[in-house]
Write a structure and sequence with these properties.
The chain has a domain at 2-111: 5'-nuclease (Rossmann fold). It has nine helices and five strands; from the N terminus they run E-H-H-E-H-H-E-H-E-H-E-H-H-H. It has helices at residues 7-15, 19-23, 33-39, 43-50, 74-85, 96-104, 112-121, 130-139, 146-154, and strands at residues 2-5, 28-32, 54-57, 90-92, 109-110. The protein is globular, with a radius of gyration of 15 Å.
Length: 161
């Protein structure tokens, strides 16, 4: 099982200092080539790509239906296409349209907030609290409302296996 990241997730995780902790886990981290090259402006992320911690893949965009592409960025299309090819992986998507398309295509996905909760619940991020990190992400510019924060905090532990 791997996690296929879109740029927005990587950017916010880096901005709140969680990207390093995620890289220290044994999770398989995947990023589409278009995301790694063009969208994420982070020295730490670039170093981890060069170190091979992130698997950089070219997405098979021919698997992605053309009629569902309008309104999506190249990153969302690439993430969903990679999970269409390898359905054991999870797409990490925060874009509303991207998540709706993933749902239509039966692609497994989760948002950054739910990913963070999963990692905290599993003890992979050290001694941090779910609400503390979610509010820190919100203060750093992550678009998440109070209702979503409360809903994520109440959810049972996810099974990503």
């Amino acid at each position: 099982m791997g996690l296929v990241f879109d740029a927005s997730s990587l950017i916010i995780l880096d901005s709140v200092g969680l990207l390093g902790k995620i890289c220290a886990t044994d999770l398989q981290l995947i990023v589409p080539k278009v995301v790694s090259v063009r969208e994420v402006n982070s020295e730490y992320f670039s170093k981890k790509v060069l170190d091979g911690r992130f698997q950089v893949l070219e997405p098979p965009t021919d698997l992605f239906p053309f009629d569902l592409r309008p309104g999506l960025g190249d990153g969302e299309i690439a993430v969903i296409a990679l999970v269409l090819k390898e359905p054991q992986h999870w797409a990490v998507l925060d874009d509303f349209r991207g998540r709706n398309v993933a749902r239509l295509l039966n692609v497994r996905f989760l948002g950054t907030a739910r990913l963070v909760k999963y990692l905290i619940d599993k003890g992979m991020l050290g001694n941090v609290s779910v609400p503390g990190i979610l509010y820190e992400m919100k203060n750093a510019g992550f678009h998440i409302d109070e209702e979503t924060i409360l809903r994520v905090m109440k959810e049972p532990i996810l099974d990503l296996g």
